[in-house]
Amino acid sequence: MPKSLPNRPLRPATLLARGGTMRSNHDETAEALFLTSGFVYDSAEQAEATFAGTATHYQYSRFGNPTVAMLEQRLALLEGAEACRMTATGMAAVHAAMLSHLKAGDRVVASRALFGSCHWIVSTLLPRYGIESVFVDGGDLAQWERALAAPTAMVLLETPSNPMLDLVDLPAVAALAHKAGAVVVVDNVFATPLLQKPLTLGADVVVYSCTKHMDGQGRVLGGAVLGSKTWVDEVLQPFIRNTGPSLSPFNAWVILKGLETLALRVNAMCASAAAIADFLAGRPEVARALYPFRADHPQQALARAQMTGGGTVVTFELAGGKDAAFRFCNALRLVDVSNNLGDSKSLVTHPATTTHMRIGAEERARLGITDGTIRLSVGLEDVADLIEDLTEALEAAGGAVARAAE
Question: I want to staple 226 with a disulfide (CB 3.0 to 4.6 A). Which of 16, 81, 131, 263 is the partner?
């Protein structure tokens, strides 16, 4: 018989390496990769009982797979959730969490500061199905109070937000949402399960793009939805089973291996991000630098109350607008231009022309996303090398800044 984990609380780094591991009869050290679409039965009677739900047996990898199940259990243990279901991408996780729960006539209240595709689901897709959508400024509790004065089916928010690192007071908003009858869904990608535990702060459901820090090495796509066993089994699982946004066993295996080093990577990236935020804040080309744990972040106290670290992303604004931003991006030699984040390689994004292009100029202005805004996802390179690369790029952008000031 394979050994079970100790019957005592285990710390995150241990869970990341060993949580949810299920060894086959071959007693392999690494998690087994079950590359199979289907499964066979001992008899027709066993197949019937499996489909009837009176016997436990894998049926089809769209419904469940041993490798995927290991990842689901590991993430549930890490998050402190009763259950988890994996999806093919982070956006599939958001979509499944919302559409599995909602129906025509329902009402959704969402923080305005959402990733572009999440914003599109709330602003464009849900109304097509007769679901009312209401946006609020996430940091304004008075707006939440007004919006949640009416019965509401779901609240969607991300904190810290992409890309401006705005915070939402989770306990306060969750209390208001629950009074309105809403399920609270939190996109926790920027914080990771290591830096913030939304379920302990009042959230009901947590969603992730596992593409980010969990794989964190630019290899595969994946998503996760976590919540209570009742909600996952009765609401989410039928939707996933019948609509098919399933995660491939191979991608699940890659993410499992990525989780083993998640704590090491996130801690190192947070330390570098904090140092780079301090560096950027002192540069004349930078109009403002945003990092949740810096003293000048407008919601620093809330960030420190809800998070154990400031995260791996720094957002800053160049005074010279788009011209300066493009000069800066094009001058980088170590840091890559990419719309991904949470990677072991440092990446920069110009949100106004990429991730948040389609929400429109007016909505970007409301979110504080200017043409000079840059989102920097800090990786695992030596922080001194990164600062040297950023220095050279800022100097290259200086000409655009000077012209803008004239």
Answer: 81
